[in-house]
Write a structure and sequence with these properties.
Number of helices: 4
Largest sheet: none
Number of domains: 1
Strand content: under 5%
Low-confidence stretches: none
Mean pLDDT: 94
Distance between the termini: 24 Å
Number of strands: 0
Helix content: 55-70%
Radius of gyration: 12 Å
Length: 74
Amino acid sequence: MKFRQTLFWDVDPKTIDPKKNAQYIIERVADFGNDKEARWVLNFYDKRLLRKIIAKSRCLSPETKILWMLILKK
């Protein structure tokens, strides 16, 4: 996936490794991603990993956590 510079404004999107930087990517997409990016995250990462990262994240808003936990219940 080619990441938008506006989504990862603090780093060069070309240097992001989806495996090594999974938590960073998941949190950023959960909070600021568009539909295409959210679908990519849901298809690329294991649901258990997504649930774990979303639940334990200290940077996501409570509303974002609730939305994503509802999405991941399926």
